[in-house]
Amino acid sequence: MGLLGMAGSAYADEAEHGLAAPSYPWANDGWFASYDHAAIRRGHQVYKEVCAACHAMSLIAYRDLIGVAYTELEVKALAAEIEVEDGPNDDGEMFGRPGKPADHLQPPYANEQAARSANGGAYPPDLSLICKARHNGPNYVFALLTGYRDAPAGISVRQGLYYNPYFPGGAIAMPRVINDGGVEFEDGTPATSSQMAKDVTHYLAWAAEPEHDERKLIGAKWICGALLCLYAMGYYKRWKWGPLKSRRIIWDVVN
C-alpha cells in the first residue's frame, strides 16, 4: 500500500509539474567549456524565422550579437531590416527610422493584451531569460520543444491546446513549431527538428547568461594565479624555515 501511495503521489506530481526533463550534453557544460558560437548563430536564425512571430526578447540588443554570432557589419545589416519608432522630432511627432545596433530586438506585439488576443488568451513569455526562469533551464526548453506527441489513452486535451508531457499540466497553448526543414541554415547543417531545437536552446542559454564564457575565463585565470601563489608560498616557507627546522642545537652542560 505504501508503494502504491508513493507511485500515485509521483504520478500526481508529474501531472502537475510536468515530466522531468532528461539531462543533455551541452557544449558549455564543464568547468572550462564554452558556448558553441556556430550553434548560437543558427539558433538566432531559428528564433528570428520561427519563434519571433510570437515571442519577444526585449533584453537583447543587436549589438550583443557582435563577436558572438555575427560581425559588426552583419549586425548593422540585421538591425537595418527593422523599423523603429523614435522621436519626438522638432515638430513633436514620432517617426520611424531604420534600426541600429543599439536597438533591442523588437517584440511581435505592442502590448500584453494584443499578444493574448492573437493567441487565444495565452501570453507568449519573453524568452530573454527563459533558460534561467525555468527549472533545469536548457534541458527543459529542449525537451519541451521536442516533446509534442498524441495524448495517451484516458487523457483528454481541450480544443486549442496541445499535449506535451514536459509542460506543467500536460496541455500547452503553443503548437509544435519546430519541424524538419523549418529553416535553411547558412552553413549547410541539416535542419532537422532536433537540430533546430538544440540550436535555438543554445541561443536562449547564451541570451540568459551572455557573460558565461568570460566568467569561466576569469575563473580559470584566478585558479592559475592561486596555484602560482600557493607554489611561491610553499617555496618561501621551505626556504625561510628549512634552515631553522633542520638546525641542530647541542647543549654543553660541562662548560
Written description of the protein model:
- Its cofactor is heme c.
- Heme c binds at residues 51, 54-55, 174.
- It is a single chain.
- With 255 residues, this protein is mainly α.
- Helices cover 43% and strands 5% of the residues.
- It contains eight helices and four strands, in the order H-H-H-E-E-H-H-H-E-E-H-H.
- It has helices at 2-17, 37-49, 72-80, 112-118, 130-133, 137-146, 193-208, 212-246, and strands at residues 83-86, 95-98, 162-163, 171-172.
- The strands form two sheets. Strands 1-2 form a two-stranded antiparallel sheet.
- A hairpin with an 8-residue loop joins strand 1 (83-86) and strand 2 (95-98).
- Helix 2 (37-49) crosses helix 7 (193-208) and helix 6 (137-146) runs antiparallel to helix 7 (193-208).
- 22% of the residues are buried.
- Mean pLDDT is 90; it is low at 3-11.
